[in-house]
Write a structure and sequence with these properties.
By secondary structure, the protein is an all-alpha fold. It has helices spanning about 20-25, 30-55, 60-105, 110-130. It contains four helices and no strands. About 0% of the residues are buried.
Length: about 130
């Protein structure tokens, strides 16, 4: 189907499309005024199509906006427990570090066993919090 355009609209879909190269190529066979008119007409057609699409799918656009609000609310609902758990885990980690430093300083023989014990408790806490 011929549209009377001096270009195929698929030319704009090329991954390496260059407006400069496009104009240089087309001006070999067409007057710049004619090319400008065709591009302007095509732009108007695209704009009209977009407006028609938005009008036809307006309820879908509004519904999407409402769904995004719901998603935001769900995210807010889970953010606080995650923040609370993060704080607890960080505090626990600091306590473990402090205890390990104290034990390492006072008694190096039990350091490894104590470290393994704290690591186990730490991992259990992480597992528990991630499965809430």
């Amino acid at each position: 189907m011929s549209t009377g355009r001096p270009f195929a609209t698929s030319e704009f879909d090329k991954e390496n499309f260059s407006a400069r190269d496009f104009v240089l190529e087309k001006r070999k066979n067409y007057q710049l005024q004619d090319l400008q008119g065709s591009l302007s007409q095509y732009s108007t057609e695209i704009h009209s199509t977009l407006v028609e699409l938005i009008n036809a799918k307006y309820s879908d656009f509004v519904s999407l906006s409402a769904q995004m609000t719901t998603v935001d609310q769900h995210l807010e609902d889970i953010q606080n427990p995650i923040r609370d758990n993060h704080g607890f885990v960080k505090e626990f980690s600091n306590e473990v570090s402090t205890c390990l430093q104290t034990v390492c300083f006072n008694d190096k023989t039990n350091t490894f066993l104590l470290f393994i014990s704290f690591l186990f408790v730490f991992l259990v806490c992480i597992f528990w919090f991630t499965n809430l």
